[in-house]
Amino acid sequence: MIENRALRRPLRALAALALVLVLAGCAGNGMDTIAAARPDEATIPASELRLAPGDSIRVTVFNEASLSGTYQIDDDGYVSLPLAGTVKAAGATKIEFERVLAGKLKGDYLTNPKITVEVASFRPYFILGEVEKPGQYNYSSNLNVMSAMAVAGGPTYRASQSDVLIQRGGRGDFKRYPLSPTVLIYPGDLIRVPERYF
Question: Would you say the pTM of this structure is higher than 0.85?
Answer without folding.
Answer: no
